[in-house]
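### Sample
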Amino acid sequence: MKPLRLSHLVTAAAFALAGLAAHAEPVKLRVAGNLVAAGLLQQQREQPFFESFTKTTGLPIEMDYKPMDVLGVKDADGLRIIRSGLFDIVMLRLASVSRDDPTLLGPDIVGLSTDYDTARKVFDAWREPLDQRLQAKHNAKLLAAYPFGPQILFCKPAISGLADLKGKKVRVSDQSLAKFVEGLGGIPVSLSFGETQQALERGVTDCAITGPASANSGGWPEVTTHTLPLGFQVHYNAFAINLAKWNALPPEQRTKLAEAFRKFEADAWTYSRELWDDAARCNVGKDPCRIGKKFALKEVPVSAADRKVVADAVRTVSLPLWSEACDKVNDKCSAAWKQVIGPVVGLK
């Protein structure tokens, strides 16, 4: 028998390795996704993205996706969950998890990101500081983010503007918004989204703040009468991957995974805006109403004075409050904000 040449051995080894790779078990990543209560963004964009991930990307990665409310997980615990490694990819509602780290609320303090165009510029400016913070302190890497869109006011009692919030109980989602409502003479009430519809119905709270699409899918127009379409924040949702899981992936897989999430992010921004515009019309009985359910809320005209109150809130309320809280846990927080976000919105 003739001895095998080295080239033959190398070729045989290459085929053997290729065969092993072809039959290797795919990586399985556990995903704690957005709440089902979040509505169509979760149902029509987020869940299909994860469930078709392997087929769409060709990557040997399977996403075991479940919404947080199906898992029985609170969205406010997102940072703790991903830091612990209990789930590999976790949806982070920045307003909710900012209680554990105010850094995450940097692009969404009251009066800052009040429309889609500004929100996109602001988040892109904060993306790198946010990713660095997640990696340094929370064992996580940022993958993508999208907004629910401008968060507006829904009330059961009749209102004609922000001045009418004096003495009224208003559902809020974070301390920045709570402080703003207090400044108007209102009484901030911290409630989860899922609890709010019933709270409005029973009078536990008089008004509540969310996006038009979330309100529409959550049935808020069934238990309220007026809406003021003045944006306070946009409520970003981010997806992050456990840093150890990220680092364990081969470089080429990390590149392809990051690209897939960039495409998902762009699609989610576009769809979020489409849903917002449609629901804003549907909630007040206007056409075209193609996606949401049509209601008959009274749309309160937004005055120039109320717009100024919200715009001024960045300087007078939300930025000072946020800076103080953030600098306590991250000493370079407000300095970084002023460096990257300040120029975007004309603040020093």
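Residues 158 and 164 are 9 Å apart (CA to CA). This sample (ABC transporter substrate-binding protein) is used throughout the tutorial notebook.
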